[in-house]
Each structure stands twice: as structure tokens, then as C-alpha cells.
């Protein structure tokens, strides 16, 4: 019966059936809860915590897009090829 549904052009229409076709089952859903995960204040979360499993304690008051901050940049002279490195305090 399933080949008729998957490939109707190859196997033709399914034979008539007096019983209704079974409805597909939806996959089960699970709720997962982790315990004994260290909770950290939201102010301490930074790029250095990337890849770590954290529980964050706090309230979300405002959501905005992340801003990229530049801490160091290299500038190259197009004429002589000299590379000048500049440090930016606070990424600004």
C-alpha cells in the first residue's frame, strides 16, 4: 500500500479499500531538564564562555542585535606595503 502512495506513476492507484487509511503518527515530544548545572549571572556571559554549558540567571528586559567591536586592526599601505597595527580601547 505504501508503494502506491510513494510512486503512483509506477504502481498505479491503490486498490479501493473499505477501511479508512491509517493516519500518520506524529513523533513524540520530550521535555529535557538538566540538574546541577552551575548558574552564572548574565553579566558574566561573554565570548570566553562559548562552548561551555551554562545556566543563566536573570531577566530579559530588552533584546537587540549584537554589535561587533574591533579591538585590533592592521592597516597596510598600498604603496610600500608597510603594516601598521592599531589597538582600540574597549573595541571602539
Task: Describe it.
By secondary structure, this protein is mainly β. The protein has a domain at 34-62. Helices cover 10% and strands 17% of the residues. The mean pLDDT is 77.
Question: What secondary-structure arrangement, pairings included, does this model have?
Answer:
Layout: H1 2-6, H2 8-11, E1 39-41, E2 55-57, E3 72-76, E4 83-87
Terminus-to-terminus distance: 66 Å
Major sheet: size, sense and barrel closure? Answer: 2 strands, parallel
Helix and strand composition category: mainly beta
Tally of separate helices: 2
Strand content: 15-25%
- How is the largest sheet built, in terms of strand order? 1-2
Using the CA coordinates, give the radius of gyration. 30 Å
- Element-level helix/strand string: HHEEEE
* Poorly predicted segments: none
Fraction of helical residues: under 10%
Q: What global shape is seen? A: flat
Arithmetic mean of pLDDT: 77
Per DSSP E runs of 2 or more residues, the count of β-strands stands at: 4
Provide tags for this entry:
92 residues; mainly beta; two-stranded parallel ribbon; two-stranded antiparallel ribbon; 2 helices; 4 strands; 10% helix; flat
In short:
This protein is mostly beta strands.
Amino acid at each position: 500500500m505504501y508503494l502506491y502512495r510513494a510512486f503512483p506513476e509506477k504502481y498505479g492507484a491503490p486498490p479501493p479499500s473499505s477501511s479508512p487509511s491509517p493516519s500518520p503518527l506524529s513523533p513524540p515530544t520530550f521535555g529535557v531538564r538538566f540538574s546541577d548545572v552551575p548558574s552564572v549571572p548574565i553579566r558574566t556571559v561573554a565570548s570566553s564562555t562559548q562552548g561551555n554549558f551554562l545556566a543563566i540567571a536573570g531577566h530579559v528586559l530588552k533584546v537587540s542585535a549584537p554589535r561587533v567591536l574591533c579591538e585590533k586592526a592592521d592597516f597596510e599601505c598600498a604603496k610600500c606595503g608597510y603594516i601598521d597595527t592599531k589597538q582600540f580601547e574597549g573595541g571602539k
